[in-house]
Specification:
Helices cover 80% and strands 0% of the residues. The protein is mainly α. Helix 1 runs parallel beside helix 2.
């Protein structure tokens, strides 16, 4: 009787130890209609449920890593009891990430619009500066011409003054 009880208890115990270590590839082969058989079936169901939920959550996370924040569960019926808050949390995180991405997209569009305005303003300033530089060059050329004419007139006036002085001395 002890051996009949010890073998299934040992198998269930080993399965529980492996599960606690993170190994969910555990199979319990014991079958019976007694209490130990029922326990073995329930532990097997728990292992299967954990496998489904973990795989489902891995899929959520992989999609989120790629920028897809939709949470479509392939095993929503497995999220019962204490597991249901996990699904609710993933959906809440996905909703917040979607909202954040929308805000980032809107902000990006606003920044792009502002950048275009700054670029247009810079182009207008550059064009104005170019026009001013051209006007300053034209003004400098005109001043040079006037300066040359003034110098020529001054030279002519000196020559006329010398000529007048030489006529009056004689």
């Amino acid at each position: 009787i002890i051996r009949l009880i010890k073998i299934p208890i040992s198998e269930i115990q080993n399965a529980a130890i492996k599960m606690a270590e993170g190994d969910l590839d555990v199979k319990i082969s014991y079958t019976s209609k007694d209490e130990l058989g029922v326990l073995a079936v329930q532990v097997g169901r728990l292992i299967h449920k954990l496998q489904l939920i973990i795989e489902d959550e891995n899929q959520f996370l992989a999609k989120m890593a790629e920028g897809d924040f939709t949470v479509d569960s392939t095993c929503e019926e497995s999220y019962t009891g204490g597991f249901y808050p996990l699904l609710v949390s993933f959906r809440g995180i996905a909703d917040k990430l979607n909202d954040t991405m929308l805000q980032i997209s809107q902000s990006s569009a606003q920044v792009a619009g502002g950048a275009d305005q700054v670029s247009n303003g810079a182009q207008a300033l550059a064009q104005g500066a170019t026009e001013q530089a051209s006007s300053v060059q034209e003004l400098a050329a005109t001043i040079d011409e006037i300066s040359n004419k003034v110098n020529q007139n001054a030279d002519s006036a000196r020559q006329a003054s010398k000529a007048a002085d030489s006529v009056s001395v004689k």
